[in-house]
Amino acid sequence: MSVIAIYPGTFDPITNGHIDILERASGLFEKIIVTVANNPSKTPLFTDDERLVMIRESINHIPNTEAVMFSGLVVDFAIKTGAKAIIRGLRALSDFEYEFQMALMNHKLAPEVRTVFLMPNEKYTYLNSSLIRQLAQFNADVTEFVPDCVLQALTQKFGH
Amino acid sequence: MSVIAIYPGTFDPITNGHIDILERASGLFEKIIVTVANNPSKTPLFTDDERLVMIRESINHIPNTEAVMFSGLVVDFAIKTGAKAIIRGLRALSDFEYEFQMALMNHKLAPEVRTVFLMPNEKYTYLNSSLIRQLAQFNADVTEFVPDCVLQALTQKFGH
Amino acid sequence: MSVIAIYPGTFDPITNGHIDILERASGLFEKIIVTVANNPSKTPLFTDDERLVMIRESINHIPNTEAVMFSGLVVDFAIKTGAKAIIRGLRALSDFEYEFQMALMNHKLAPEVRTVFLMPNEKYTYLNSSLIRQLAQFNADVTEFVPDCVLQALTQKFGH
Amino acid sequence: MSVIAIYPGTFDPITNGHIDILERASGLFEKIIVTVANNPSKTPLFTDDERLVMIRESINHIPNTEAVMFSGLVVDFAIKTGAKAIIRGLRALSDFEYEFQMALMNHKLAPEVRTVFLMPNEKYTYLNSSLIRQLAQFNADVTEFVPDCVLQALTQKFGH
Amino acid sequence: MSVIAIYPGTFDPITNGHIDILERASGLFEKIIVTVANNPSKTPLFTDDERLVMIRESINHIPNTEAVMFSGLVVDFAIKTGAKAIIRGLRALSDFEYEFQMALMNHKLAPEVRTVFLMPNEKYTYLNSSLIRQLAQFNADVTEFVPDCVLQALTQKFGH
Amino acid sequence: MSVIAIYPGTFDPITNGHIDILERASGLFEKIIVTVANNPSKTPLFTDDERLVMIRESINHIPNTEAVMFSGLVVDFAIKTGAKAIIRGLRALSDFEYEFQMALMNHKLAPEVRTVFLMPNEKYTYLNSSLIRQLAQFNADVTEFVPDCVLQALTQKFGH
């Protein structure tokens, strides 16, 4: 059985929580495509290119993964690439309803694509990209939560 | 990649919600072993044998599945059979914390085994075996929620 | 429009929270039948008769209400009496999933009967009969939470 | 007993979930007034007129309903029209706290007006207007979730 | 033991819920410093000065409290002032995850500073500053929820 | 300010999560009395004496703590000993409502006693005594979650 999975997100920026999910998924599926949302209506801290470069550098130790930019509906991308699974990290209660809404909707739009939830290490339970941006802005030490290349990019961005 | 997954539970009795989860999982993993808990401290409505027979009859249309009785820790069984994934249905909020507690604990006991959460069809969101037992006891019609063999077993058990 | 509603529960014992819900409902529906669960598998603190007597005394200031014992499925009783609404108090998060499970199941069993949720005064948010029994057992003052007749019955029961 | 109820919302646009709630409420109350929020600080996708026209077309099979625009506090409108009930759909956990906050506040502002919660069919559990707008924007098929006139309006709005 | 605690927030405006928390905390700690967030990226209804003046007037009956403006990370302020506790009100479920995220993050940044949660009176369970601003805008009576000086400031601000 | 706090619980057995809470509390209050529930209606795994001995051994590195057996209402004990604070660990969502119910009720019974919630390290988020008993029964390694003396007692109890 050779299942392709996609792991969609904004990754603004990628955190150690995302990487933990990818490491768990890499042992379960043949290939995992990280699909990075290009959402014109949001203004991310990092550009499309910056986010993609940081992801690729952060995941190159996980052999069966790759990263691409993407805009549109996740299920459309899944169908186009033949992916049978959408991977989502489920960290805390606040994720629950949004993720279930998306999973049910995606199931209606493409029943052959399954949403698969993985839980990160509990030390990442309350971690998300928005918190990282906020902490970095105030010059707090986020070494524990992001890969090196993201740490450098944050330092540069906020000019500390 | 040839991943074996286990799907643990008490299945007292198996419901259409369980079967929906298994159908989703069957497209993602090479083999799925339904492990039926033999818990001496609980008194199930159906005996070990009754539960196992109903499960086998209910899932024989899903080729890459099998069912076995099991007592002890789920991760020990996973390690013994070489399973790399534990499948759990995540239906509603009330499942959330118990499932996360179990997943984190299992991760500590056996980091190489991943807990994979799948969401059933929303029509099974509020369905569980305990509700089925309760409804059947009052002679309510549960045709929509359980396979035929379970329906017959419930009728026999409650003598309606 | 002349709608009959039922308000099911165990009422072991009735609390001011229950009465608050009934007062709210009494302005919305023609008649409200308090249906008191006679559940042979549970051992309530108060007998069927004791509970019924306390309810009747506590609600006799609300003209369009009455109380009866009942065993079986709530929807069966609703259909038999022509009730179109089942009233449920929704106090706190912990009520949420159980109540939704019941409401969905009852909707499937009898689509013509609607479950109507009312919210009690916030001072009753964390009040329930089980807490009252527990507090009374330790001789705590529960005057604020139950009607007079219940207060007396608790004092007698626990012999303080 | 002749109770008038109001069903307030933004309805941008009305969905089958809203209509399901209205159909349930129509059997319980004498008249139901759908009050459509005219909130100058938000920019809805559809104008006041567009929303009102779509609602009226979608609910004209439910005899005891009508729809009006409204700005201000919901309880003020309830008092002015003599409504004794405010109807709210309670779908999922995320609704819970906001709805309870509103219900408690409205109870303080106008104790004679009751908030009545109804639960939609479980297939609408994760449906809301914002999700519909998002899906329609990406050209996803939302036929199952909105009435025909809304489907057409969305197609026109997004020019697919 | 002489413990200094800080009570951070935006206080736009201070409510009776905040004051309730402070009254509870004042019996537990030697001194409580109310730190008022000066967040340049948000536009509060009341200016820094207005908020500070209202807080000082509202808490001058609680002897061991003081109020200061502050920008930056709360833990940095705690360390600078030698505070060993951060006080947070925990009212309802919606506070839970955000507060836990903050508490865990602050613990990582400064392990010697403890986050202490207090629960306000249940009549303030669903109260927050944003609701007060919204109600005042529509000329609803908020006398029960804010101190006198805030009531006057709201009346002036909205020109009723 | 010299505040005595009590930390009530069943402690069957004490875990590293409890100890983490006590270490946090020890820096905030003058003295902390661990009150161990003697609940005749429950049958704990460990006797009163066993639990008390394990607690005392586990907390003797925290100077301002002591442990005593206790039966009855926690607030009665607080009043008798002059304690002004009840300490509770708040780990996860499932604790939330029960703890709030208790805190509100205790506030009504004794307004001068405050309930103070502390959050343990996130690695103890999903840890509780019941899980420990369950895991130990199946011979799982719980070294990471309990102090040495508890580990030995569990081994002896389950005869592995």
Task: Describe this protein's structure.
The structure is a homohexamer of 160-residue chains. Chain A is of the alpha/beta class and 160 residues long. The first copy, chain A, has one domain (4-158): Rossmann fold. The first copy, chain A, is built from six helices and five strands. In chain A, helix 2 (48-59) links the parallel strand 2 and strand 3 (65-70). Chain A is globular, with a radius of gyration of 15 Å. Chain A starts with a strand and ends with a helix. The mean pLDDT of chain A is 91. The A-B interface holds A 1-3, 24-25, 27-30, 84-85, 90, 93, 96, 100, 103-104, 107, 112, 114-119, 121-122 and B 1-3, 24-25, 27-30, 84-85, 90, 93, 96, 100, 103-104, 107, 112, 114-119, 121-122.
**Percent helix range of chain A:** 40-55%
Number of domains of chain A: 1
pLDDT < 50 runs, ≥5 residues of chain A: none
Straight-line distance between termini of chain A: 49 Å
**CATH architectural arrangement of chain A:** 3-Layer(aba) Sandwich
What structural class do the secondary elements of chain A suggest? alpha/beta
Strand content of chain A: 15-25%
Shape of chain A: globular
Question: How big is the Rg of chain A?
Answer: 15 Å
Mean pLDDT rating of chain A = 91
Largest sheet of chain A: 5 strands, parallel
In terms of quaternary structure, the protein is homohexamer
Instruction: Identify the CATH class of chain A.
Output: Alpha Beta
* DSSP strand count of chain A: 5
CATH-defined topology of chain A? Rossmann fold
| CATH homologous superfamily caption of chain A | HUPs
Tally of separate helices of chain A: 6
Arrangement of strands in the largest sheet of chain A: 3-2-1-4-5
Which chains have the largest interface?
Answer: A-B, 27 and 27 residues
Order of helices and strands of chain A: EHEHEHEHEHH
